[in-house]
Amino acid sequence: MLLIKWRNSYSVGIDQIDTEHKKLVELINEVFMVVRDKGDEQTLNRAVEELVAYTRYHFSAEESAMEQAGYPDLDEHRKEHQRLENEVVDFHQRLQEEGGEIRIDLYHFLRDWLIHHIIECDMRYSSYLAQQAP
Ligand SMILES: [Fe+2]
Q1: Domain-embedded: residue 6
Q2: Arithmetic mean of pLDDT, 118-122
Q3: Which structural domain, as residue segments, surrounds residue 72?
């Protein structure tokens, strides 16, 4: 069983961005599996680190795409990315400080975090960017 199953309704209509969102789903599922299988701290840390790194990569790729398309609400979206990135970084820090105690919250947080990012934030730019696509 996976924590998040990709659904077509998550598609923002831009292949590259969908591919990156699918990769985020995959990384979150990996973290979930480490938690579920009671993996050691090191394995969990490594999985979360990978997620943080890919999140940074994805957000900056998205910002470049919005910039190229002349998306008018880029500043606002950038702030939202910053906020989401801080959330996942804070979470990683809590994980390192508190260890196993917060594990139960972990996957609920991750699932809601990603779904919020895609459904609430990215859907706002999707039609604008899809129209600009060649
Ligand atoms: Fe995104």
Answers
A1: no
A2: 84
A3: 14-132
| CATH number of domain containing 120 | 1.20.120.50
Domain count, the chain: 1
User: How much distance in Å is there from the Cα of 57 to the middle of ligand 1?
Assistant: 10
Of 85, 84, 87, 95, the closest CA to residue 47 belongs to 95
Reading the block at residue 96, the tokens are 């390192």
Residues with CB under 5 A from ligand 1 (ion): 122
pLDDT of residue 26: 94
Q: Specify if 3 maps to a domain.
A: no
pLDDT classification of 100: cutoffs 50, 70, 90: low
Q: Which residues contact 6 (CB under 8 A, 6 or more apart)?
A: 22, 25
Whether residue 117 lies inside any domain: the answer is: yes
Where does the pLDDT of residue 99 fall: very low under 50, low under 70, confident under 90, or very high at 90 and above? low
CA of 58 to the centre of ligand 1 (A): 7
Instruction: Identify whether 107 is part of a domain.
Output: yes
Give the length of the chain.
134
* C-alpha 61 to ligand 1 mean position (Å): 9
